[in-house]
């Protein structure tokens, strides 16, 4: 049977390829959701519907489905992956630990929700992402002072946490008023990974232990060192969310009222929905995604980019930076964008001014050093994708016919030379004609 050409094989997948993650449309629109039980589709439907209402295409599969896969014919079928399968010991199909890590290394996004029954596989994936869950498989986060009294009186594993990271780009500009309900396993951040951040922390009185047994040894995780929800943005700008609780995504926790122990304020609704919705916007690049375009440099007073500069030239550098709002590119406004004029080390470091319409610019004088320089913009800010721009340009010295005919700074040397010649002439005349 003759083989079909590759373009004919890919025709059925063209609609997917055309809507995939791209620099001009950076939101992760096609998301694979792996579940332990298909009943999670209904018990966590509010969270899933919030994603679908924003245009995400969710493909629900059982984690052990033998037909699942992340890529086909060398192309990734999905832009994001949600693992709501904490008890899964082994994925079906072609998905395994290496496939998930390759998925993230290729710039795709990942959400992991665990609980106190988390399998070794889920723990290993989290460890590779810079997070270490409590080694005790029966451990849960316990807090005797910051527990929630809205559901089951005396259940100190039901945490009401309001220790959020202070970042509008991560959690949105609207203030989170009510605490977040959490019930699950705590984790710590790997000190070897500087990219992972705590988004929701436990209170100083919390600790991680088995709630059904008495403490015989000091708990391994205590206080604010316990992270309940963490995020990571990799160097390739892939984003990861890791939660120690699957039930915090559920409809029950989304709709439940909450009252924190020791307070009189009772909130009719927890902040789980607001917190996780805003965080998912960040994870799937609906917020905090930057792009830089129209990098330009030229001599002051000119418009064309030269092939090289001369020492002491006056130049102008500009770049346009935009932020993805979820639907369109909006001008990014900040006052901490810098450019370096770099050769082995920065000879010039300048803050860029902005017209608040996306354009950043500055002007400076080329240093009195010739060689091969680079314009470099290395922009890293909490919650935003990093920008790394570089443009190489040589700098030459003056040509022999470009120097000033007479240099004012050398007038004393000119005077010394001519005065020496005049003195020598007078001395010679006196010596020859004096009897």
UniProtKB/TrEMBL annotation:
Quaternary structure and interacting proteins, as annotated = Component of the oligosaccharyltransferase (OST) complex.
- Cellular component, GO annotation: oligosaccharyltransferase complex
What sequence ranges are listed for the domain OST48 middle?
Answer: 297-434
What PANTHER family does UniProt report for this protein, alphabetically? Answer: DOLICHYL-DIPHOSPHOOLIGOSACCHARIDE--PROTEIN GLYCOSYLTRANSFERASE 48 KDA SUBUNIT
Q: What domain of life is recorded for the organism? A: Eukaryota
Q: Which residues form the OST48 N-terminal domain?
A: 30-283
Q: In which pathway does it act?
A: Protein modification; protein glycosylation
* InterPro entries tied to this protein: DDOST_48_kDa_subunit, OST48_MD, OST48_N
Q: What is this protein called?
A: Dolichyl-diphosphooligosaccharide--protein glycosyltransferase 48 kDa subunit
Q: Would the keyword Membrane turn up in this protein's UniProt record?
A: yes
Q: What is this protein for, i.e. what is its function?
A: Subunit of the oligosaccharyl transferase (OST) complex that catalyzes the initial transfer of a defined glycan (Glc(3)Man(9)GlcNAc(2) in eukaryotes) from the lipid carrier dolichol-pyrophosphate to an asparagine residue within an Asn-X-Ser/Thr consensus motif in nascent polypeptide chains, the first step in protein N-glycosylation. N-glycosylation occurs cotranslationally and the complex associates with the Sec61 complex at the channel-forming translocon complex that mediates protein translocation across the endoplasmic reticulum (ER).
Entry similarity comment? Belongs to the DDOST 48 kDa subunit family.
Q: How does it sit in the membrane?
A: Single-pass type I membrane protein
* UniProt-annotated location(s): Endoplasmic reticulum membrane; Membrane
Pfam families xrefs: OST48_MD, OST48_N
* Signal peptide (UniProt feature, chain positions): 1-20
Q: Where are the membrane-spanning stretches?
A: 411-433
Q: Name one GO biological process term.
A: protein N-linked glycosylation via asparagine
Q: Which organism is it from?
A: Juglans regia
Keywords of the record: Endoplasmic reticulum, Membrane, Signal, Transmembrane, Transmembrane helix
Q: What is its main location?
A: endoplasmic reticulum
Q: Does the keyword Endoplasmic reticulum apply?
A: yes
